Amino acid sequence: MAIIKIQKGTKDILPEEMSVWHFMEEKANEIFTKYGAKEIRTPIFEATELFARGVGDTTDIVNKEMYTFEKSERSLTLRPENTAGVVRSFIENGMHRLSAPIKLWYKGPMFRYERPQAGRQRQFHQVGIEVFGIKQPSADAEVILMAINYLKALGLNDLTVELNTLGCPVCREEFKTKLKAVIKPYLSNLCEDCQSRYEKNPLRLLDCKSPECQEIFAKSEIQAVIQGDFICPECAEHFKTLKEYLDTLGIKYERNKLLVRGLDYYNRTVFEIKSNSLGSQNAVCGGGRYDSLVKNLGGEDTPAVGFAMGMERLASLIGKIEDKKTTAFVISNDVKEALKLTEELRAENITTEFDLSNKKFVKQLEKASKTAKFAVILGEDEISQNKVTVKNLDTAEQKTIERSNIIKFFK
Ligand SMILES: [Zn+2]
Ligand SMILES: [Zn+2]
Hints:
There is one protein chain. This protein is α+β, with helices and mostly antiparallel strands. Among the domains are: about 15-155 and about 280-320, Bira Bifunctional Protein, Domain 2 (BirA Bifunctional Protein, domain 2); about 325-410, Rossmann fold (3-Layer(aba) Sandwich), CATH 3.40.50. The protein contains 16 helices and 16 strands. The chain has helices at about 20-35, 50-55, 60-65, 85-90, 135-155, 170-185, 190-200, 210-215, 220-225, 235-250, 295, 310-320, 335-345, 360-370, 380-385, 405-410; strands spanning about 40, 45, 65-70, 75-80, 100-110, 125-130, 160-165, 255, 265-275, 280-290, 305-310, 325-330, 350-355, 370-380, 385-390, 400. Strands 1-5-6-11-10-9-7-8 form an eight-stranded mixed sheet. Strands 13-12-14-15-16 form a five-stranded mixed sheet, with helices on both faces. The chain has a three-stranded antiparallel sheet with strand order 2-4-3. It is elongated. It binds zinc ion (2 copies).
């Protein structure tokens, strides 16, 4: 019969890769907990409208990349990102009543129907943070610190923070107007995407990767608008204070005025963190402030700031982590005795295996030497004398001890 294959853009995470994933997940829990963050797990599918309103209906994610399906006349969508879901849960569970800040972290699979390419999958994983309730730049600073400390804990050094401010709805509106005015003469030369973004979300023009558009945006009169400072005094103060906090902590950052992030909901601070591990620059984290999203999704007006990281990218930068060897491998042809002894050892938290297929001693020993640190031999002699022989598989040293002393030996 024909075998059924895995779907394009998806990937099995195989047992030998699991050490890296456990490492990423354990470090996330460890680092984010230090900052007082709590984990939240929201459903993988939500009402389609949540993403249309929460991610923005001018984004590629919502327009082209969502896995949407109908069930009982409801339109449902596999989450393409997790901020909208976390915000939905925040509102629905009345978390605005808790004392601020409310710090939530998450990890899990996301789904986007993208053309599969190196490092991009249709089912991928993100780990992220959302901090609610603080409008001051101290929250922006803390979110950036959480990201940096997490990346460092994963062994990724040589990090660069790229920083920008998108202003608030008031000053950004002015910027958009100026930007549209200066781009207008070239409108018909822009790519199709840019032509449709021009009205709906002109900031996203800056995100365009098409060479023709880049060439147009490089023109001096357009650059003058992009590089000019448009932000209002309050937004300027917020940005300045954030930079002072980062300076105080010795966090290096660069201003990147083209950094707008792909999502509609950001305001003021946006940032990306790049890692230079493996010789090339890789964006490993993206985030920013989204003060209007909670309200836009029907909640109380609550400022928020967060980030997300792609875990497949992180995994590729971390590289391989060797699996830990099993501590003990019980070798015996007496299945009952082997079962008893392995369970005794496991009850004491000693990782233990034995050969379930009851092969010859030499075969069992061969297997043990590949996977375990110690062979615990229960031959006929040992069983009749109530003893065990323990062999260190690295040094080949071995000794026979009382059966009752086996736990003490491993402790
Ligand atoms: Zn402003
Ligand atoms: Zn374009």
